[in-house]
């Protein structure tokens, strides 16, 4: 009886479906987009609940205002989290509703109605394009500013301000100008054992040394204490000046000493490109953080196409294990992609791979897997 009732329900569903390509496009696109955002809201809701339970002690102990918790932290946390795990959401979405369509014999009905498997993929690719564009817009225009506000909140109420201390910093800040600092404390924006050398035509023309160099974030200037200035002349008569304190402007900011993966996430695309150009000129090893972030902003949105094709190929056939098996497989593969991405980033830190190859490698590997699965998918 159950089998007959289920068959009758399936037949009713098929009778109600208009199998013209345009109607199928609207049907699949609607299912894709609606399922994506429902899954997104559910998972984000669960994540926020767990995050609140983890950070509630910090909020209370540091007396974080409720308005700041909601609007400065969680409102800006949502786009960051949504974009970071968008591959997972896309894959689960495709696996879920396509498996349900297959279980209800809707895929069979579509193919039997004269629509080819390749033509059926059109609304999937269209929906993936919409999600990829959304993800790209978030990456380029929304998330950088959101990250600034979120990280400022974290630094004030969740963890101490930047505690990283740069040591033995040495790079070029402009053509012919080189900076060295034995250490840098982010607590007071102060460089210790600071040296600025100016070279012209392979000759050292001046050297400024100071016990400390403190950066003023308001005036964008440096205050040198216990400084020593030596100017080298061609006639071997050197000029030497010393003093207790001197204010000066240098093509250097406090952020240059502790740029990390977190700080580059707050930069707009143009700021990111400017930083890359500056750090390459300086020979700064931290340029890898900016290059990774730049490539990540494009690699993640592009994954929507690859994971969509893979999801359809895996779930368009009715299986004995039902929807549960497909969803489990989808979650496992999506997390594999995310872990692969993280491992690739570790190769950059280790100096094994350049940022461009490392960040696009998961997409390349999964593209081959998706192409293979699509080729062997039942059509």
Strands, helices and their partners?
Blueprint: H1 2-16, H2 21-61, H3 66-84, H4 86-103, H5 106-112, H6 117-158, E1 165-174, E2 177-185, E3 190-200, E4 203-216, E5 221-231, E6 239-248, H7 261-264, H8 269-282, H9 287-315, H10 322-349, H11 355-376
Antiparallel strand pairs: 1-2, 2-3, 3-4, 4-5, 5-6
Helix pairs in contact: 2-3, 2-4, 2-6, 3-6, 4-9, 4-10, 6-9, 8-9, 9-10, 9-11, 10-11
Give an account of the 3D structure.
The protein is an alpha+beta fold. 63% of the residues lie in helices and 17% in strands. It is built from eleven helices and six strands. It is elongated.
Mean pLDDT: 87
Q: Helical percent range?
A: 55-70%
Q: What fraction of the residues are assigned to beta strands by DSSP?
A: 15-25%
How many H/I helical runs?
Answer: 11
Q: Cα-atom Rg, whole angstroms?
A: 28 Å
Give the terminus-to-terminus CA distance: 31 Å
Biggest sheet layout = 6 strands, antiparallel
The secondary-structure class comes to alpha+beta
Our count of domains comes out at 2
Broad shape: elongated
Biggest sheet strand order reads 1-2-3-4-5-6
Poorly predicted runs are 1-12
Number of β-strand runs: 6
Which series of helices and strands comes N to C? Answer: HHHHHHEEEEEEHHHHH
């Amino acid at each position: 009886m159950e089998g007959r009732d289920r068959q009758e329900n399936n037949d009713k569903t098929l009778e109600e479906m208009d199998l013209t390509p345009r109607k199928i496009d609207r049907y699949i696109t609607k299912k894709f987009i609606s399922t994506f955002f429902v899954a997104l809201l559910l998972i984000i809701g669960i994540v926020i609940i767990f995050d609140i339970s983890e950070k509630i002690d910090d909020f209370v102990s540091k007396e974080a205002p409720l308005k700041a918790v909601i609007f400065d932290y969680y409102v800006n946390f949502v786009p960051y989290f949504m974009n970071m795990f968008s591959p997972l959401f896309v894959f689960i979405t495709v696996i879920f509703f396509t498996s349900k369509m297959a279980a209800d014999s809707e895929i069979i009905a579509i193919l039997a109605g004269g629509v080819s498997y390749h033509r059926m993929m059109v609304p999937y690719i269209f929906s993936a394009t919409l999600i990829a564009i959304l993800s790209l817009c978030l990456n380029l225009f929304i998330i950088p500013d959101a990250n600034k506000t979120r990280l400022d909140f974290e630094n004030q109420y969740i963890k101490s301000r930047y505690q990283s201390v740069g040591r033995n910093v040495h790079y070029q800040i402009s053509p012919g100008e080189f900076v060295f600092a034995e250490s840098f404390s982010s607590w007071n924006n102060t460089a210790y054992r600071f040296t600025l050398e100016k070279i012209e035509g392979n000759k050292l023309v001046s050297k400024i040394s100071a016990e400390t160099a403190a950066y003023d974030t308001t005036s964008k200037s440096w205050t040198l204490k216990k400084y020593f200035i030596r100017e080298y002349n061609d006639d071997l008569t050197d000029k030497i000046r010393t003093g207790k304190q001197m204010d000066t402007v240098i093509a250097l900011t406090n952020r240059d000493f502790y740029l990390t993966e977190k700080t580059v996430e707050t930069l707009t695309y143009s700021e990111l490109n400017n930083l890359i150009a500056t750090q390459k000129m300086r020979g700064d090893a931290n340029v890898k953080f900016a290059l990774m972030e730049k490539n990540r902003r494009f690699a993640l949105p592009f994954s929507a196409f690859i994971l969509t094709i893979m999801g359809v190929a895996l779930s368009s056939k009715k299986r004995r294990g039902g929807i549960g098996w497909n969803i489990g497989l989808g979650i496992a593969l999506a997390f594999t992609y995310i872990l692969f991405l993280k491992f690739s980033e570790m190769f950059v830190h280790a100096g094994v791979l350049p940022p461009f190859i490392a960040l696009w490698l998961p997409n390349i590997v999964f593209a081959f897997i998706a192409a293979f699965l699509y080729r062997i998918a039942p059509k």
